[in-house]
Write a structure and sequence with these properties.
Blueprint: H1 2-18, H2 31-40, E1 42-47, E2 50-57, E3 62-65, E4 69-83, E5 86-88, E6 91-94, E7 97-100, E8 102-104, E9 107-112, E10 116-119, E11 125-129, E12 136-143
């Protein structure tokens, strides 16, 4: 797990260099708090331009965030995750956020424990299929 976090930190550092809001302090969150947050899902860290979440995804509609770059670190489960392409039946649900029924013409990725995927801002993305394991646990590093 420490290896995965090191990889994520490397990706995050590259994105942070170009991010508009850059956190200016060190954040430490212990294992117990991280584990308990993963059970229910939610925010682990929130700072200027940086949010780290513990999430559990199930099959659902696609989304696009205009200004948010994502790094997803998969910690359990399996899924077909689609990036790029065109949102089908899109609806703006919040400033800078669009949700849709799915994606046409995107690239499919099989994600499982240990995988890391980056999603640049303004890129459609979709947890298309989580039926093999029911859900996917992952850390989301969101940088604006």
């Amino acid at each position: 797990m420490k290896y995965l976090m090191a990889i994520a930190a490397s990706f995050a550092a590259g994105v942070l260099v170009t991010a508009a809001g850059v956190p200016m302090k060190v954040h430490y969150v212990g294992h117990d708090q991280v584990s308990s947050t993963m059970v229910k899902g939610g925010q682990i860290i929130g700072d200027n331009g940086l949010i780290v979440l513990a999430n559990r995804a199930v099959q659902r509609g696609a989304e696009l965030h205009e200004k948010t770059n994502h790094i997803f670190i998969i910690v359990d489960g399996e899924a077909t995750f689609v990036t790029g392409g065109t949102l089908t039946n899109p609806k703006v649900t919040a400033p800078g956020q669009t949700r849709a029924d799915g994606i046409e013409g995107g690239q499919s990725h099989h994600l499982s424990k240990g995988d890391v995927i980056t999603i640049p801002a303004n890129t459609p993305h979709w947890w298309k299929d989580t039926s093999k394991t029911g859900s996917v646990g992952y850390y989301a590093v969101n940088i604006e």
